[in-house]
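look at this one:
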Amino acid sequence: MIRTFATHTIRPQEELSGLWRFSVSGRPSLMAAVPSCWETYPGYGSYRGQAVYSRKIRTGGNVRLAFEGVSHTADVYLDGAPVAHHYNAYTPFEAVVPNVPAGEHLLEVHVSNEFSEASALHLENDYYSYGGISRPVALETVSDVYIEWVHLTPVRSDNVWKLHIAASLRNLTQSKQTVSLVSSVADLSYSWKDICVPGSGTTCVEGELTCENVLSYTPAAPMLYTVTTQLFLDGDTPCDDLIERTGFREIRVSGREILWNGEAVQLRGFCRHEDHPLFGCALPLTAIDHDLALVQDMGGNAVRTSHYPNDQIFLDLCDEKGILVWEENHARGLSEEQMRNPNFDRQCADCIDEMIRAHFNHPSILIWGILNECASETEYGRACYERQFAQIKRLDPSRPTSFASCKHYKDLCMDLPDIISYNIYPLWYVNRSTEDYLTTLYDWVQTTEGAGKPFLITEIGAGGIYGYRNPNMDKWTEDYQEYALTEQITAVLSKPEVSGMFIWQFCDCRVTPGWFKTRPRSQNNKGIVDEYRRPKLAYQAVKRLYHELAK
């Protein structure tokens, strides 16, 4: 499953799921499911290196191969010829090959999950970097001019909704082409006539529809509308289409509040890794849906995609369930030295561009985040944060921005984001009451250029190993985790100046070997449920408090 809804009715599309040949040099090949992570294959549970996925496909014409995620470096070959190179496990990419002869062809994807200087973002960390074709792959046939993307921005003016539409068209021929475009939503349509697309180039068009009778999108009533865009090359028959969804909502920051359609929101969230002992990071629809059902059962209304862009299916389900999303680019805990990697700026910029281009239309995405716990206390780090926030605002000025900081009392970037966010661990890493810790930090922020902005706690929590209980309230027991979270949640959500919180974390997750010394069971054990989604004692405490303290 690529999305939870059909994105084309005119453009031929085939999902390339199922069994592919999986080969590693010096080992017998095997047939492996796509999408999946190779750590789930027998004998590959900790394999870090290179592999080749291959299969035969029948196709012809202008071929578009769309990859939702390959972990973490991919080189794509069609009949032995290179057609795409991509870095980053968590963002989509494509290979477009014009004029492919009709018939059977060999598709190969060379994949690496190796750590090296060439990889500035994938490195040993407090989560696991898996290997494989971990998200869906689609085979499409496109016309000589086709729709690259459509971006939808709801705007509310005088209590009337308008929909700003931007569309990018790509011409695969060498000569200029003249086309027409029609976008339709809720029995309304907007047309562009005589669009000139240069040879071997792209053109972007924009327009705006007034949508007087649509219903607003809210977390309690997540009303979604389908927007169909059709392209006409010759005559009245469309040759290409792209179907997207939108929800009519407006997100603003006003003083200390985050406003959703003019109403202040309180986030009661969880940080969540794409991680499961049976699936690695390649969770299927049913597993993702189960995770979100548990989030909502606990009274949660938000998820932070720590620390990378998530699968489109996850975002589709959040749209449908009314779960708000903080989505962030891919970087965690990097020092200034690591940020000086010559590949860092480019790989971050690519990640941000691909994340926003692909996920722009998800109404559930509330905040764009960057650079979790990186070197925001240094001048060099500040320059990196400044560049990335500027890039986001160019790509999408409609959503607020933030970053999760741990540089208490020394962060140099408080002026840059729209929302101030901090990770704190009182009663775990710091033996101090949550109320005192939070008040001191908040008061310090008010002495900086972050004064008067909305304030979020983006990580808070305590470790608890499933099944480890005793009456002594020892750390790592479920008992202590329940105690700590009860105090933490009560203090944070009772403070009116705080717009909400994200518990670290939803589920226990695997870590890479460099973290084994500080992470029992080779897991980050701060989940409210364990890696198999078995609830710990804290589950019921979180559920009670999230429901009781909801504003």
Q: What stands out?
A: The longest strand covers residues 93-112.
